[in-house]
Structures are given as C-alpha cells and as structure tokens.
Amino acid sequence: MDFRFTPEEDAFRAKIHAWLETTTRAVFGRGQDGPGASTASLMDVGDESRWQRLKQYHRRLYDAGYAALHWPKQYGGGGATLIEQAIYQDEALSFGMPLYGCNQLAIDRIGPTLMFMGTQAQQDRYLPSMLTGEEIWCQGYSEPNAGSDLAGLQTRAVVDGDSFVVNGQKVWTSLAHRADWQVLLVRTDSEAPKHKGISYLLVDMKSPGITVRPLVQITGDAGFNEVFYDNVRVPKENLVGEINQGWQVSIATLMYERVSGGTRHPVERTINELLELAKQVQFEGMPAHQHPYVRQKLAQFAVEARCLRLSRYRSLTSQLKGKIPGPESSFGKLFATELNLRVAMFADELLGPYGTLEKGSLGAVEGGRWSQRTLSARGLTIAAGSSEIQHNIIGERVLKLPKG
Prior knowledge:
Elements: H1 7-28, H2 39-42, H3 48-63, H4 82-94, H5 104-117, H6 120-132, E1 137-140, E2 156-160, E3 163-170, E4 181-187, E5 198-204, E6 210-215, E7 224-235, E8 239-240, H7 246-262, H8 267-278, E9 282-283, E10 286-287, H9 292-320, H10 328-351, H11 369-380, H12 387-398
Helix pairs in contact: 1-3, 1-4, 5-6, 5-7, 7-10, 8-9, 8-10, 9-10, 10-11, 10-12
C-alpha cells in the first residue's frame, strides 16, 4: 500500500488546512490547536449563539466551494475526486469541525438520496437551498416503538385528493426545532408486510398540524426533538420514489448515515486532546502523562485510532476500484463510536472527582468539556443504529454467521 499523495493532492491539503485555520479562528475564535467545542457539541444546537456561528461557518464553507465536495458539479457540488474528499474529511475532522456545516443531514444524506431517487423537479427545488444552508433539513425516522427496528414504524399517511394526510409521532429527531424541511417515513399500506407499505415524503416543517417538542438530554442540550403530526397535508409531488416503496429509498439514506456516523468521527482529535489533558493533570501523585498506566492507555487509543484510519483507507481503496460501500461501513461506525466512548470514560477516570464538574463550575478542568463528552459519548453509540444492531449486521452480513 502506497500512502503517499501526489504533489497536487498535497497542495490541495495545504489549501484546505489554511482555509480551515483562518475560518475557524474568525468564526469560533480558535484554530486546530485551540480549545473549543467538539463536532458533537457543535451540532447540539440548542444554544442560539452557537447555532448562528455554525450558520456563519456554513456560508463561508459554501462560498469557498467546500460545502459539498462529494456532490457532482451538475448539482452545484465540487465534483472532487475520492482522494480529495478523503483529504477534506481528514482536515475538517482534525479541526473538530462538522463536514457539512449546519446542514449535515441534507448535504451528507438527503441530497444524495434525491440525486439517486428523486425527480428532476425535486432536485431543482431542494438541492440548491440545501447547499447554501438557506433551508435546513431533518430526518423523521425513529418512533417511540420503532427505533432500531425502523420498519415497525406506525406514523400513517392516507391519500386524500392531491395530498397525503399524515398522523403520528416521531422521536429523537435531530434539528427538528431548526429545520425548514423533513424527510419523513410513513406507513401508507397497513396491510402489507412491515418492510413494504412504507413511503418516503418531503415535508414542510411549517405545515399546519406539526408540533415540535425539544428533548433535553443529560448534557443539558436539546438537539433532539419529538415531532407530532395531526392531519398534516403533504402534496403528492413530495413523494420520493414509488408509493409503498419507501423502504428502498430509506436504505440509501441510512447507508450514507452509517458511513458518516462512523468512519468520519473526529476521534483522533479527541485522543490528541486527551494527550494534552494528561500533560496538565496529576494521576496517583505524579504527572499523568508520565504514569505507566496512563501511557499504556494513551498508546492503546492511538493504535486503535490508526487502525480506524487504515480501515477508512481500505474502504477508500474499494471505492477507487468502483465498488459500492457495503455493510463494512457498520464496522467503522461501531469501532469509532465505541472507541470514543472508551476515551471519554478514561478522561473521566483521569480527572477523578473533577470529571463531574460541569461547565461554569468552580474548578472545572477545561471549562467542563470533558464531563460533557462523558455524558454525550454513550448517545453516539446509539445514533445511526445502535452498537448491538451493528454487531448483528457485521455478524450476519460480513462474517456470514448464522442468525441467533
């Protein structure tokens, strides 16, 4: 395996790095080495000031032509090569920045789904405003009784003239309180098997009958929401794909989500920040970074992070050979989020009682951000398909083990 980049690719990396250094300092007041929010906390958008800064960052991302390097140029994207996309992802994650600004769901998952399965009218209407961040999108998938078993969803839509009429509830809907539009999975045939009879709709979040209730998490943030639908009318032209065939459309979106939720997690940056933390605190009466136990843990984390990077390169090599990303993306999601959880838990162990101090508390280390990470890390192992579900996928579809 040759890990060297061409001179042109090295120049592209330098250009991206310089832009990120300048822009993150201008918008967030810190660069690559400065303290600041992680990607996860940036996307906890309950704080109005943080949200406005993220929107400002998104606009600069768009103006620079980096908002959607992976989109074809015909849709307004960068038309970048797979190598260029990988370089951009590495650099953005090293700065702890979300890859697609304030419209992550739209640019990473929903837009590509519309390119693949949407009509020309849908592409013309929605893709440009996704790119600029003028219309924010959310994803109406999970329900109180249909989370990991998404096909068990019960939110219903019936045809009435030129519209679908939707009734039901979604939960854990990220960005619903900020979103202008939503992709919504609904059951349109209650008699069909559960993977059939599902349709994929594009819903205006300002439609009469929609109620959004933020869910406050253990971190104090409220990025998730409950969404209720009471006779919400959705025009028929907002159906993506065929009626009752929405499961196939949703699978495309979910696969993009599992790739982005795992192999693109900024865990290497978090480990580097943990190393800096170990240089600042004591552990068992000596500088933490000199303690044999701490050094062994840090080394193990670094090795695992490098394994994750090499796994990404293997997936990239597969794509360069023209192969479609498959269930191996579940490995990246599982490994990255579980590693992130272990890193956060070790930071808690390193800090001892100081690890319980929240933001604003007297004596909180680094503003209490490590306690925030400890509280939020578990949730990342659930989002985009829980670790238990990923184990099943890997066992059954990758390793070909018999179903339990």
